[in-house]
Design goal:
Chain B: GO terms for molecular function: transferase activity. Chain B: Pfam families: Ribophorin_I (PF04597). Chain B: Component of the oligosaccharyltransferase (OST) complex. The complex is a heterodimer. By secondary structure, chain A is mostly helical. Chain A contains 37 helices and ten strands. Among the domains of chain A are: 114 residues, no CATH class; 192 residues, Rossmann fold (3-Layer(aba) Sandwich); 30 residues. The longest helix of chain A has 29 residues. In chain B, strand 20 and strand 21 form a beta hairpin. Chain B is globular. Chain B folds into two domains: 202 residues, Immunoglobulin-like (Sandwich), CATH 2.60.40; 221 residues, Immunoglobulin-like. The chains are: A mainly alpha, B mainly beta. Chains A and B meet through helix 29 and strand 9 of A and helix 4, strand 21 and strand 24 of B.
């Protein structure tokens, strides 16, 4: 019996310990789920149960259609109000997984006589699935190390801001369910790989199908699993378990993924999916080689096989290249190129570059989103290297790939987050394993001073030595012959080789206490950080803005909904509204009016048309507006209250996108001052001042300030006092804080005049009319 | 033939009643009609000073012209100074409607009586001109018949039209009635236009008089309040005995029926107007509603979410037996100021304690529920209302009493949270409701003890079966062949 650093009860039976552990595990998972859901409800509590941002509004609208009309109607849904006059085949251009999920939940609850509002289901879907994500991460990490690491990983993913940013209540987007599907598919894959079970492989395929139906990011799985399989093969770790797992996953998964209309034949015709196909073929060859090898033992034959293997690989790659060149296989899409070259999008596809979430990640956001996990994460990856079982390779590959992608694009931080949580949990639980273990090492007294330094530098070393053999033994703690109690046998199971003398380890309670307290402090601080970031940064619906009154109470700025609701209630139902594409989904969702362009951004020319209309002068824009039946034009203007996300700040992107299609008519340089500045004051260029966007934004703005100098609070520039005249548009509505301004497009003049002349005549007429009157009066007198 | 013979008594009856009118049981010593001109609602009070000409006169007949009847949504006859409404029956003729008022006591000869007929007219005014710019004033036009018709001889008659603001733009001069008039056909003083006095008017409820003398007079006046109309009002009242709660939810479609906005809305103009406190008269910036006392969890939202610009002052629930001494006040501000011709839909709801509106009769074992028909929006008319009353699940012996007849009443079943068989519901439809109609519907029902338990039992059963399935599922081994452990 080894000496213990602190007493552990000795009179517990192994069953008691086992039952208590599993009970605690369930309680811990339940609490983690509760914390994951609760921390995502800040948005509902601070604001209301509302759909956030832009894309979720479309998902919500589609879900309403699905809930009201059924799945087949949704499948065949052609939306004539989007991309007016083109329309959009919604059923064939969405990932329906999210809407189907809410639709199923909605119908099941209704069948159970629980008529929950569809909006509440949509709002609370993401928090609900985050609890499932925590559970899936627990399972995944348990496969990597053990259950305590699993629980830590579940707790991390439950509250880490990197994941919360995309899954707060109301953030009804594909990512809401996709991260759960991602983790669960990976778990099933690992399980299939470990057991060689076709069942788990098929379950992985089914969840892969669900993922394909839910999020475009499924391509990540499509490449991660083959990459893992490829690396395993290259490392000579080919096994029949791998063969069964991969083949069952690939065949079932690919065939089922092709059932999603939006994906269709892509899995066999685009470059992104070719890796999976190639690995599938390679696996067959390797399996065949393996079979032959087991029957023939000639070394020459083996060499021949190896050569033919390489030849086949080269042949396959060149065939792929040829097919791509010949156009049989679609080349990489632009969005994919921008993953490799961050400057690519800005040069060739401004529309992708104009989206803020496609920008490269700034380094502070890593710390903001992951806090301490970001620096524990490498330790976990190194621990995986130490042991390097098949599944550890998966974590390593995942970590490398996701780290790269997260650095390229802000939104891909989301795919990095799970692996960071897993790896950090492995590292953290290894640390705890070492320092919680009460067994004192058997070392002669004189060596004691040398070990004093352990807490400083020995962490990784000791953890790895313990972590190395522990999990194998932890699987069967009963096999360990415990001389003392059941609890100490549990620890004994975690300590390296029984019988052999422990020469390294931690001495005494104080050294343990220092490290553990530090660890607990870090964990506690992590929780505070996550809560703070979630409540401050990630829980704003962005449809509703909040500010503070002078007495500290919350003041809601609700201009967006004011304008959208005005449109919804007081304009004709078929009145086409033109706005920049950011607001397309919101207008469709909240105002229920046809829009020219929306966040779907599938037609660059159409968006460029809107950009051209916004950046041209009134006379040039008017024919464009009339040809598209535009009734109202909506602009966002933050100059009065200092809302910086307004259209004037986005204006250069409109110009750039329009320039991409009409380089002769729109030139970006015309919108800058001669000194190259982007100004809206007196010095603004003539083109800028004449542009529709400028006029609509600042129309009558200077009058608000009366005799004082008008100031644009976003750009901190004085606004010229010269009144802006609009000849082709009429101001129809402006919201309380002037954030949304809506203009009505005038109809052609009934006398066939140019509207500018008509307007000039109308204003001039008054002057003429007033002149003759005194003369007439004089005559009467 | 038999048919003809059978109809003779009816014919005699009809003839005798019309004859009784013709023979004049009464004489009107004076009729004064005064109309309070508002927006969409006009209150008309007509006072008849009646003198009986024969003994035992019990039924007095008042007359409304066809146009007025079509606009009138509320009729109430009272003896002046008394609260009790008298029973009335209506008989429609081609040009007018006869309303028989049963007097509480029969009048003997030469006895006099002051009868007050109160009517509420809805949609009787039209914006004139039909459009107004944001900076312009709001003018309305109201038209009515010059004479108050009566089957009896009238000694003197006046019609007063009074607007709220003392600014009247124009009015019609009556034609061809000099025969009845004294010094002036019409006089204007401040906010009031008086037609009359006209004296010695013969019995006028007949075709001849209507064709010869009856005419339409119109008045155009300024109104400084917006003209409001609730085009659609859906109220659902749900009673929960388990929650000791009565939930009321109103879905209201508000429409500004004043002059349509000419041109467009200018925020700058509006801000200047608010700053100088001279808001356009046809603009509705906010609304004040009186809700019941003691309410909780009030909510106000519209199709796209919560509207955060509302204030609620809850009055405490009065002691039992003295309810509604005070009312809670809800100040709600629509998302945008409501200008002429604009619409605004919103939903308003609240919870109220059960004891505030339900009482239990120990003798019969029945509950009585009082449901207010509507929460009046000040100065507005409710064009269509649908009132749904949802009783607790398993309620039996459902009966209801309405203060005035609904357009239609249907019984149905409403299924909601944790229901198994659904709850009985009553749906009543009404048209053209005003402040006067803000009364209560009384519903009586019984809830057996077993019905109270149904919810608890069904939930318990659901959980029990869930656990049972889980217990069984964990113990079923579906694997083929012996299990093999793979490392």
């Amino acid at each position: 019996m080894p000496s213990l650093a602190y007493p552990v009860p000795t009179d517990l039976s192994p069953t008691t310990v086992k039952n208590a552990t599993s009970f605690l595990k369930i309680v811990a998972l339940a609490l983690i789920s509760g914390a994951a859901i609760a921390s995502r409800l800040f948005a509902v509590i601070n604001f209301e149960s509302i759909i956030h941002e832009f894309d979720p509004w479309f998902n919500y609208r589609a879900t309403k259609v699905l809930a009201a009309k059924g799945f087949y109607e949704f499948w065949n849904w052609f939306d004539p109000t989007a991309w007016y006059p083109l329309g959009r085949v919604v059923g064939g251009t969405v990932y329906p997984g999210l809407m189907a999920t809410s639709g199923v939940i909605y119908n099941v609850l209704r069948a159970l006589n629980l008529p929950v509002d569809i909006r509440n289901i949509c709002v609370l879907l993401a928090p609900g699935f985050s609890a499932l994500t925590a559970w899936a991460t627990y399972l995944f990490t348990t496969e990597m190390k053990n259950e305590s690491a699993g629980l830590l990983a579940a707790a991390f993913i439950g509250i880490v801001p990197g994941y919360i940013s995309r899954s707060v209540a109301g953030s009804y987007d594909n990512e809401a369910i996709a991260i759960f599907l991602l983790m669960f598919t990976f778990y099933c894959w690992i399980k299939a790989l470990k057991t060689g079970s076709a069942l788990y492989g098929t379950v992985a395929a089914v969840f892969y199908f669900y993922m394909v139906a839910a999020w475009g990011g499924y391509v990540f799985i499509t490449n991660m699993i083959p990459l893992h399989a490829l690396v395993l093969m290259l490392m000579g770790r080919f096994s029949h378990r791998l063969y069964v797992a991969y083949c069952s996953w690939y065949v079932v998964g690919t065939l089922s993924s092709m059932q999603v209309p939006f994906v269709g034949f892509q899995p066999v015709s685009t470059s992104e999916h070719m890796g999976a196909l190639g690995v599938f073929g390679l696996l067959q060859i390797v399996a065949f080689t393996d079979l032959v090898k087991s029957h023939v033992s000639s070394q020459n034959f083996q060499k021949l096989l190896r050569v033919s293997l390489v030849a086949a690989g080269i042949l396959g790659a060149s065939a792929f290249a040829f097919l791509t060149y010949a156009g049989k296989i679609a080349p990489w899409t632009g969005r994919f190129y921008s993953l490799w070259d961050t400057g690519y999008a800005k040069k060739y596809i401004p529309i992708i570059a104009s989206v803020s979430e496609h920008q490269p990640t700034a380094w502070p956001s890593f710390f903001m989103d992951l806090q301490m996990l970001i620096f524990i994460f490498p330790a976990g990856v190194i621990l995986c290297f130490k042991e390097l079982r098949d599944e550890h390779l998966f974590v390593i590959i995942y970590a490398v790939m996701a780290s790269y992608f997260a650095g390229v694009m802000v939104r891909l931080m989301l795919t990095l987050t799970p692996v960071v949580c897993v790896a950090s949990a492995i590292a953290f639980s290894s640390l705890l394993d070492v320092y919680v273990n009460p067994i004192e090492p058997d070392v002669p007294a004189e060596e004691a001073p040398a070990v004093e330094a352990v807490p400083a530098n020995g962490v990784t070393e000791t953890t790895t030595t313990t972590g190395g053999k522990k999990s194998k033994k932890a699987d069967k703690p009963a096999a360990v012959q415990a001389s003392g109690s059941a609890l100490s046998s549990l620890f004994a199971a975690k300590s390296p080789g029984k019988g052999s003398k422990r020469t390294t380890g931690i001495f005494g309670l104080d050294s343990r206490g220092v490290v553990l307290l530090n660890a607990i402090w870090m964990l506690a601080y992590f929780v505070f950080h996550c809560t703070w970031v979630t409540s401050v940064a990630y829980s704003s619906p962005s449809v509703v803005l909040a500010s503070q009154n002078q007495d500290g109470s919350q003041h809601i700025i609700d201009d967006f909904r004011e304008a959208y609701y005005w449109l919804r209630q007081n304009t004709a139902e078929d009145a086409v509204v033109m706005s920049w594409w950011d607001y397309g989904y919101q207008i469709a969702g909240m105002a229920d009016r046809p829009t020219l362009v929306d966040n779907n951004t599938w037609n660059n020319t159409h968006i460029a048309t809107v950009g051209k209309a916004m950046s041209s002068s009134e006379e040039k824009a008017y024919p464009i507006l009339r040809k598209h039946d535009v009734e109202y034009v909506l602009v966002i203007f933050g100059g009065l209250i200092g809302y910086s996300g307004d259209d004037i700040n986005k204006f250069l992107w409109m110009v750039r996108i329009a320039q991409g299609v009409w380089p002769d008519e729109i030139q970006e340089s015309n919108y800058f001052t001669p000194r190259g500045e982007y100004k809206i004051d007196e010095n603004a260029s003539k083109t800028m001042k004449e542009s529709l966007m400028y006029k609509m934004s600042y129309y009558r703005f200077a009058e608000v300030f009366g005799p004082q100098q008008a100031v644009d609070r976003v750009r901190q520039q004085p606004v010229p006092k010269t009144p802006i005249t609009l000849d082709y548009l009429d101001e129809a509505y402006t919201t309380e804080n002037w954030i949304v301004r809506i203009y009505q497009v005038k109809k052609e003049d009934s006398l066939g005049r140019d509207l500018k002349n008509a307007n000039a005549f109308a204003t001039g007429k008054k002057g003429k009319k007033s002149k003759p009157q005194p003369r007439r009066r004089a005559l009467v007198a | 033939m038999a048919f003809k013979w059978a109809s003779i008594p009816l014919f005699i009856l009809l003839w005798s009643t019309s004859a009784s009118c013709a023979t004049s049981d009464f004489e009107n010593t004076a009729i004064v009609r005064s109309a309070e001109l508002g927006g969409s609602v006009v209150h008309v009070t007509t006072t008849y000073s009646v003198r009986a000409l024969v003994d035992n006169s019990k039924t007095y007949t008042v007359v409304l012209g066809a146009y007025e009847r079509s606009k009138t949504s509320w009729i109430e006859a009272k003896i002046k100074g008394q609260d009790k409404a008298l029973p009335t029956t209506e008989r429609a003729e081609s040009d007018y409607t006869l309303i028989d008022v049963s007097l509480p006591t029969a009048l003997s000869t030469n006895k006099t009586l002051n009868l007050v007929l109160e009517t509420v007219q809805t949609h009787a005014t039209v914006p004139w001109p039909a459009t107004a710019a944001q900076t312009e004033e709001q003018k309305l036009k109201y038209g009515t018949d010059l004479f108050v018709l009566s089957p009896y001889k009238t000694l003197i008659q006046r019609t007063k039209l009074r607007s709220i603001a003392p600014r009247i733009v124009a009015h019609t001069e009556p034609q061809g009635v000099d025969k009845f008039a004294g010094d002036a056909l019409v006089t204007k003083s401040g906010s009031t236009i008086v037609y009359g006095p006209y004296s010695n008017i013969p019995p006028s409820a007949n075709q001849n008089f209507v064709e010869e003398y009856q005419q339409r007079v119109e008045i155009q006046y300024y109104l400084e309040q917006p003209v409001l109309e609730v085009t659609e009002y859906k109220r659902a009242v749900e009673v929960s005995h388990w929650g000791a709660n009565v939930n009321t939810q109103d879905e209201i479609t508000l429409h500004n029926a004043g002059p349509k906005l000419k041109g467009h809305f200018s925020r700058l103009e509006h801000q200047v107007q608010s700053y100088t406190r001279k808001l356009a008269p046809h603009l509705l910036p906010a609304l004040q509603l009186n809700l019941p006392a003691g309410i909780r969890n009030a909510y106000y939202y519209d199709q796209i979410g919560n509207v955060s610009t509302s204030k609620l002052r809850v009055a405490p629930l009065g002691p039992k037996g003295f309810p509604r001494s005070q009312q809670s006040v809800l100040e709600l501000k629509p998302r945008y100021p409501l200008l002429g011709g604009w619409n605004y839909t919103f939903t308003l709801g609240w919870d109220a304690p059960l004891e505030g509106s339900v009482s239990y009769n120990k003798k019969t074992g029945a509950y009585t529920l009082a449901v207010p028909i509507l929460t009046p929006v000040p100065g507005s008319v409710v064009n269509n209302e649908e009132l749904t009353i949802i009783l607790p699940e398993g309620a039996t012996d459902v009966d209801f009493a309405t203060p005035f007849a609904p357009v239609s009443a249907t019984l149905g079943t409403h299924v909601t949270y944790l229901d198994t068989v659904g709850r009985p519901s009553i749906t009543l439809r009404y048209e053209n409701l005003t402040l006067k109609h803000a009364q209560e519907v009384y519903v009586t029902y019984k809830v057996p003890f077993t019905a109270h338990l149904r919810k608890a039992v069904s939930v318990a059963f659901a959980f029990f079966s869930l656990f049972a399935v889980a217990i069984i599922a964990r113990r079923i081994d579906l694997s083929i062949g012996p299990k093999q452990k793979v490392q």
